[in-house]
Write a structure and sequence with these properties.
Structural class: alpha/beta
Largest sheet: 8 strands, mixed
CATH superfamily of the largest domain: NAD(P)-binding Rossmann-like Domain
CATH topology of the largest domain: Rossmann fold
CATH architecture of the largest domain: 3-Layer(aba) Sandwich
Radius of gyration: 24 Å
Strand order of the largest sheet: 11-10-9-12-13-14-15-16
Bound molecules: nicotinamide-adenine-dinucleotide
Strand content: 5-15%
Length: 445
């Protein structure tokens, strides 16, 4: 099939490349000319494991190309995939400006029947709006189909090639058949539903996963008070097939380009219908608070933070990506600077993106994990990159001025800390001081 993908970011580029890998002819479009120039010169504007090789193979095979000419791409394609961003407006609603602009341009470019497949995450009713915009520019027949995307950055190619399910929201049999044909090589789990339910499935799924994370983070906070270990609790809970083990890792909260904005957008969608989504509001609030756990633990560990040097490992919102959108590291570093700390930060991939977005020249960006830890009064782990996990604690101890470690992602096992001099505070697990587990004296049996 001939496809045009509008918006060549984390979703559009990965989807476009994967569809070309399946043998389709794909043109990826973006209005950021520098992205297209980079892609045409063999470079990749985002970090995603395996993406560069896959792009190069499919370009060589003549199935994949890049352009900023939307009109040409639309005219030569049967299916148009919309994958532009829908970031948050200041009030939390989804900003539909990019998608509306694209709908206009598609409308003006139509030359025969097309299926417009909307992968961007959009509020209920948006696909109908997109159809109305396109209709106002053309007499050609078309169908707008909601096909929400569920890939995760860091494992995007694996996810796109092995989806748990494909949701197709449409009432058009013609469009459903074409979109099913496109996805059939990927999975048999294809669910056809109405457009509005499809739009809602995406928000409900992300809101549910965010709820699981905030739930386990609150359990972690209680575990700290009662002397339980949240990892043991999560293991015990997760083996119950009704609960499942995924998204039960306690830490410093979720970030990224999806959960924060999609939870806010769903609260707004509900609010516009006079429904107060109390549970989801609490999920968001718990997540916001959870980030400050790192600061509270540092204060407890060091006393004063002023004039202390704090090493930060990890700036991306999760490992294996350079995406820093809504990463917990922003609030944590801002707060440390406000409290008068010197901050030295390192991330294997995301430092440049982070520096561009934080705009605080006082932060020293380091080129190695060692440089960020060297002579620091404490080290905080904010992202669980494999590179950090692989560094032996005995080496970290030698780099630091004092063996103070805040593990915001619970990457170490208790056993690793035994017989070490570390003061080690993690999330939802007993503190360790000089290799000894701190017990809760206020609990008596
Ligand atoms: P992104 O910001 O990485 O990419 C969007 C791209 O669209 C950018 O390259 C931008 O230049 C381009 N663009 C904007 N306006 C354009 C126009 N008029 N013409 C052509 N290109 C244009 O965003 P993303 O992370 O890929 O997310 C895209 C959508 O997918 C969002 O709605 C998001 O919620 C959803 N989504 C994202 C993920 C994820 O993990 N990133 C997962 C599932 C769903």
């Amino acid at each position: 099939m001939r496809l045009a993908v509008i918006g060549s970011g984390y979703v559009g580029l990965v989807s476009g490349v994967c569809f070309s890998e399946l043998g389709n002819e794909v043109i990826c479009v973006d209005n950021a000319n520098e992205k297209i120039e980079l892609l045409n010169s063999g470079e990749v504007p985002i970090y995603e494991k395996g993406l560069k090789e896959l792009i190069s193979n499919n370009v060589k095979a003549g199935r994949l190309s890049f352009t900023s000419d939307l009109t040409d791409a639309v005219r030569s394609s049967q299916i148009i995939i919309i994958a532009v961003g829908t970031p948050s407006l200041p009030n939390g609603e989804a900003n539909l400006a990019y998608i509306e602009q694209v709908a206009q341009e598609i409308g003006k470019s139509m030359n025969d029947y097309k299926v417009i497949m909307v992968k961007s995450t959009v509020p209920v009713g948006t696909n109908e709006k997109i159809a109305a915009i396109i209709r106002s520019y053309t007499n050609n027949l078309f169908d707008v189909v909601s096909v929400p995307e569920f890939l995760r950055e860091g494992t995007a190619i694996i996810d796109a090639m092995n989806p748990d399910r494909i949701i197709i929201g449409t009432t058009s049999l013609r469009a459903a058949n074409l979109v099913m044909e496109l996805h059939r090589p990927l999975t048999d789990q294809i669910i056809i539903t109405d457009v509005r339910s499809s739009e809602m499935i995406k928000y409900a799924s992300n809101a549910f996963l965010a709820t699981k994370i905030s739930f386990i983070n609150e359990i972690a906070n209680i575990c700290e008070k009662v002397g339980a270990d949240v990892q043991e609790v999560a293991k015990g809970m997760g083996t119950d097939s009704r609960i499942g083990s995924s998204f039960l890792k306690a830490g410093i909260g979720y970030g990224g380009s999806c959960f924060p904005k999609d939870t806010q957008a769903l609260i707004q969608i509900a609010g516009q219908m006079d429904y107060d989504f109390k549970l989801l509001k609490a999920v968001v609030e718990v997540n916001r608070e959870q980030r400050y756990n790192v600061i509270r633990k540092l204060e407890e560990m060091l006393g004063e933070i002023e004039d202390k040097t704090i090493g930060i490992w990890g700036l991306a919102f999760k490992p294996e990506t350079d995406d820093v959108r809504d990463a917990p590291a922003f609030e944590i570093i801002e707060t440390l600077l406000k409290l008068g700390a010197q901050v030295k930060a390192y991330d294997p991939i995301a430092s440049r993106n982070f520096e561009k977005n934080l705009n605080r020249p006082e932060v020293k960006y380091c080129t190695s994990a060692m440089e960020a830890a060297e002579n620091a009064d404490a080290l905080c782990i904010l992202t669980e990159w494999r590179e950090f996990i692989d560094i032996p604690l005995s080496i970290i101890q030698n780099w630091l001025k004092a063996p103070n470690l805040i593990d915001g992602r619970n990457i170490y096992r208790k056993e690793d800390l035994e017989e070490t001099p570390f003061a080690y505070y993690s999330i939802g697990r007993p503190k360790m001081n000089n290799g000894v587990k701190e017990t809760n004296s206020f609990i008596s049996f």
